[in-house]
Amino acid sequence: MIRSLIPLITLFIISLLFAIGLTKDPSSIPSELINQKFPSFNLSELYDEESIVTEKDLLNKVSLVNVFGSWCAACITEHPYLMEISKNENINLIGMNWRDDRAKAIDWLKYYGDPYEKIIFDDESTLAIQLGVTGAPESFIIDYQGQIKYKHVGVINNKIWEKDILPVINGLNKI
To answer: Rounded to two decimals, what is the model's pTM?
Structure first.
């Protein structure tokens, strides 16, 4: 009798785990880097190979580091909103061009517009690996001391901005 119930119990347990998994937000990927210093890096700026960007460029202001690529379809969806943020919000918006061709990225920004204060060129994933980037777009909020305070995976839109990102930025600006 008990042996005949084993497949049914197994199916119930698997179904329960599957149901729990469906309630999770796939864009909510916990990052072990929260409250850690932004990784040290020394990479060229997208527009000028001779100009170097480092983690020091993220100090003394609240920064939003946005990972993007000219190859990224979701980045096209997100980009108009980043253009609005750059015009209307008091935030140091830093781009991180990831796994891209420099000329294609520059052409992409000429076509769609450039909302960024600076753009880190990470064609070999040097910084992306340290940050645990799994895809684009991804964004990180960095505080005045250069600590990562928030990570968002996926497209930033008005709902995400108002509900998740802006409260973190406002909280950091009050400190």
So the answer is: 0.83
Instruction: For residues 151 and 128, give the distance between their C-alpha atoms in angstroms, rounded to a whole number.
Output: 13
Residue 92 host element (H or E): strand 92-98
Model confidence pLDDT, tens digit, residues 21-78: 555 544 444 568 899 999 999 999 999 999 999 999 999 999 999 999 999 999 999 9
| Other CB atoms within 10 A of residue 121 CB | 23
The angle subtended at Cα 68 by Cα 65 and Cα 71, nearest 5°, is 175
DSSP 131: H
Q: What radius of gyration do the chain's Cα atoms show?
A: 20
DSSP-assigned beta bridge partners for residue 148: 142
**How far does Cα 151 stand from its chain's mean position?**
6
Give, to the nearest 10 degrees, the angle between helix 73-88 and helix 102-112: 60
Structural domains present in the chain: 28-174 (3.40.30.10)
